[in-house]
Every structure is written in structure tokens, then in C-alpha cells.
């Protein structure tokens, strides 16, 4: 067995040892003493280790895998070992006891992708079945690896809910609405940042503008919301507001899909974001603190939509008709020499800096919405904290999260097989003559791009 395979096997052995350690039980009922007991050092270590591994280490290893860096395997091996250690810590603590819930169940479920990823990694290191099974293993390894940030985010969220004892009984529906949609806004901002910074080749090869994809997601999500936001016979004010938001999304999304055909840019998704933000800013709540936080969430969302409109309408270089067009497979517009000149001057650099605004604001809006459940704001209210302090705390977390996002994007563009191209381009921002919204000419489709999202071959 090779040295690399031996290193990869070590976390698998540790994981096997960690499974029997799950002797710590979650309870169906808690005494007042158990619920009020302090969180001990071992549990704090569990929280710190698992947050560091799933929030930073595994996403970093995933990015290094995408760029084919030699540090991918060592980093992921360390991550697997620390995950096993964190699992043992989580089932060894004393003090505070917790009700049985989704966090403990998810911890056991996550052994499936962990074991699968380890097995696939070891198999790929053996370099066997090169022309039969290995290509499929490479694809599956990539799919599971890309799911790690989602799994980690979900489990960390479940952990926070478990610690506070939230989302039980009648509060479950509100938790689902806030945490799912808030996470959706964060994912939207993250994907937007990826596409703007290193997704140029993918956008050009797809032959679709970003707004075309946005509109489809908005439309489908609106259809789901239209039929799931009202339950029972009585229509409350919130039921009516949430249901009409669903209608707004699928009707506006349908218009956005039509206007974004043929690789056209569109402001419709941004307009839907602005209207959603306005609705949330007028969303009356039981507590004044909650009303203020919802209002700030709405204003942040409105600003995200406005900055996106500015980026789409004014930051992108000028257009000119293509000489040859074959229908919907090509854009009606491409760069002119004037557009290239503007991008080569200060205008292009300023535009690339401006593009971070909608992405960051979407991340911040998502965090604000996730932090605006009744249970969370009741807790903040009991601490005598005002909305200004609370909102600024959330924006501070948003700055940290967006720093991690752009750091990982930069790491992808400057590591592994992308390191040489990054040195030639002097950074991860798009080159001055970028045509990221215009489809690649047919003759260039097979050329090897510097940065390709989703290339697992």
C-alpha cells in the first residue's frame, strides 16, 4: 500500500473507533437542572472543532480538490481525523443535557457521505480500473465533495438550534421558513460571487445569462411557496402576505425567463428581490425589536436588488450586434472596441469592485432573516439588547462569512492547476476584455479555460 493510501486510511480507522463512542444519550424529557446546567469544556471543544472542520477545513479541501492541488488529500485526511475526534467529544461531555433532536440524528446520517468519500478517495489513489469504473468514481467523488459545505452548514445550524432548544412545537414552521429562506439568500450571494469572479468560462459555455438561471429558481420556488404557506381554513395576514409573495415570485420569474432568453441580461430578478425586501420591511411583528430587525432585513434586500440592477445595467461593458447569429444559441450582443477600452481604463476596475456589493448584501440579508425568528428575538429582548446592537452583530458575522467565501474563491483561482494562469492574470478578477455574458465562439469551446467551475475530469 502506498504512503498516500496509508495516510488516507488513518481517518477511516479513527472513524471506525469513533462510532462505538456514541454512548451519550439525548433525552425525551429534561429536568430543570439538566436544562440549566452549564456547557462544559468538552462540549465547547466539540463545537469549536466541528465548526472549524466543517466550516473552514473541509470547504478549503474541496476547493483544493477542484483546482487539483497536491494539498487536497492531506488536508481532507486531517479533516476526517478531526471529525472523528469531534464526534467523540460530542458524546463525552457532561453538564448540559439536550432533548433528542435532528442534530444527533444528522450526526449519524453524516457517516454515510464521510465513509463514501473516504472509500472513493482511497480507491482513486490506487489508480485501478482506469477506463471502466474510475471515471464514474471521479464524478461521484466530486458530487459528494461539493455537497460537504451544504451538509456542514446544515449540521452546524442544527447544532445551534439544539443548544438553544429552538424550533419545537408550534415554532417549527417559522424556523423552517426563516432558516431555509435565509440560507437560500446566502447561497444565492455565494453563487453570484463565484460566477462573477471565476465562473466566466462556465457562463460563456452555457450560452445563458445569470438572470436566466436566477429566474428559473425564483419561478419554481414561487410555485412551491404559493401552495405551502397557508394551512387551515382561516387566512391570517401573514398567510396572505407569504402566499402573494409566492405568486409574485412565479409570475415575475416567468417574465424573467422570457426576457433572459437568447443570453440577454435582465433586471427582473433584481426587481423581485426589491419587492420582497419592501414586503419584509413592512412585516409587522409582535415585538418592536422584531419589527426593527425585519425592517433592516427588508432594507438590506432592497439594496441588494438595487445594486444588482446597477451592475446589470451600467457596470457591464457596452454591447454590439454579432455578425453571425443562429437563434437562441448566441447572444444578440457582444463587446465593442469601445467597451474594451472602457474596461481597460478605471471604469472596468471600479465595476469589478462594485460587483461584490450585491453578493455581500444577499449574504447579510440571509443572516438577518435567519436571526429574526420569534424565539431568537425573545432571547435578545430578555437580554435588554436593542436592535442596533443586534443588527450590527449580524453584519459583523456577514463580513466574516463573506471574507471566507471570497478567500476560498481566491484559493481556487490561485492554487493547483490554476496557479500558473493566476500568475499571468495578476489576480482572480476577470480580465479587462472579459465577455462573460457572451457565449464562447464555436471554435473556442474545446479550448482549455483557465478557471472552470464543475470540471471533475
Automatic annotation (TrEMBL):
Keyword annotations: Membrane, Signal, Transmembrane, Transmembrane helix
UniProt entry tagged with the keyword Transmembrane: yes
Domain Protein YTP1-like C-terminal: 152-412
Signal peptide boundaries: 1-23
Keyword Kinase: no
DUF2427 domain segment(s): 28-127
Protein origin, superkingdom: Eukaryota
Ranges annotated as spanning the membrane: 47-66, 73-90, 102-126, 147-166, 178-199, 353-370, 390-413
Gene3D superfamilies: 1.20.120.1770
Protein name: Protein YTP1-like C-terminal domain-containing protein
Amino acid at each position: 500500500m502506498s504512503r498516500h493510501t496509508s495516510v488516507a486510511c488513518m481517518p477511516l480507522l479513527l472513524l471506525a473507533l469513533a462510532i462505538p463512542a456514541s454512548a451519550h444519550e439525548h433525552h425525551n424529557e429534561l429536568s430543570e437542572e439538566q436544562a440549566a446546567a452549564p456547557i462544559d469544556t468538552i462540549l465547547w471543544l466539540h463545537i469549536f472543532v466541528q465548526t472549524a472542520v466543517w466550516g473552514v477545513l473541509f470547504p478549503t479541501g474541496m476547493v483544493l480538490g477542484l483546482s487539483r492541488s497536491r494539498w487536497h488529500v492531506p488536508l481532507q485526511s486531517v479533516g476526517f481525523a478531526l471529525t472523528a475526534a469531534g464526534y467523540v467529544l460530542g458524546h463525552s461531555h457532561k453538564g448540559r443535557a439536550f432533548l433528542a433532536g435532528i442534530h444527533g440524528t444528522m450526526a449519524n446520517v453524516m457517516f454515510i457521505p464521510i465513509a463514501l468519500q473516504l472509500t472513493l478517495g482511497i480507491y482513486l489513489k490506487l489508480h485501478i480500473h482506469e477506463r471502466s469504473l474510475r471515471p464514474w468514481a471521479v464524478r461521484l467523488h466530486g458530487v459528494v465533495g461539493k455537497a460537504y459545505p451544504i451538509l456542514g452548514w446544515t449540521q452546524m445550524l442544527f447544532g445551534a438550534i439544539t443548544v438553544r432548544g429552538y424550533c419545537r412545537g408550534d415554532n417549527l414552521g417559522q424556523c423552517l421558513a426563516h432558516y431555509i429562506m435565509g440560507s437560500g439568500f446566502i447561497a444565492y450571494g455565494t453563487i453570484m460571487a463565484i460566477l462573477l469572479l471565476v465562473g466566466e468560462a462556465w457562463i460563456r459555455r452555457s450560452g445563458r445569462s445569470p438572470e436566466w438561471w436566477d429566474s428559473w429558481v425564483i419561478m419554481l420556488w414561487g410555485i412551491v411557496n404559493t401552495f405551502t404557506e397557508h394551512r387551515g381554513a382561516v387566512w391570517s395576514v401573514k398567510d396572505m402576505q407569504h402566499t402573494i409573495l409566492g405568486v409574485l415570485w412565479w409570475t415575475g420569474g416567468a417574465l424573467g425567463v422570457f426576457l433572459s432568453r437568447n443570453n440577454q441580461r435582465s433586471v427582473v430578478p433584481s426587481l423581485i428581490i426589491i419587492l420582497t425586501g419592501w414586503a419584509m420591511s413592512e412585516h409587522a411583528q409582535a415585538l418592536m425589536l422584531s419589527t426593527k430587525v425585519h425592517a433592516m432585513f427588508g432594507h438590506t434586500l432592497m439594496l441588494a436588488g438595487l445594486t444588482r440592477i446597477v451592475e446589470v445595467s451600467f457596470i457591464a461593458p457596452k454591447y454590439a450586434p454579432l455578425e453571425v447569429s443562429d437563434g437562441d444559441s448566441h447572444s444578440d450582443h457582444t463587446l465593442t472596441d469601445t467597451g474594451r477600452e472602457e474596461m481597460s481604463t478605471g471604469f472596468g476596475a471600479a465595476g469589478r469592485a462594485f460587483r461584490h456589493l450585491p453578493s455581500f448584501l444577499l449574504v447579510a440579508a440571509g443572516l438577518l432573516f435567519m436571526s429574526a425568528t420569534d424565539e431568537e428575538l425573545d432571547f435578545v429582548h430578555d437580554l435588554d439588547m436593542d436592535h442596533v446592537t443586534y443588527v450590527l452583530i449580524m453584519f459583523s458575522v456577514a463580513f466574516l462569512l463573506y471574507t471566507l467565501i471570497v478567500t476560498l474563491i481566491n484559493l481556487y483561482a490561485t492554487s493547483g492547476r490554476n496557479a500558473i494562469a493566476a500568475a499571468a492574470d495578476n489576480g482572480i478578477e476577470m480580465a479587462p476584455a472579459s465577455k462573460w455574458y457572451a457565449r464562447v465562439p464555436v471554435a473556442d469551446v474545446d479550448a482549455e479555460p483557465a478557471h472552470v467551475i464543475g470540471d471533475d475530469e
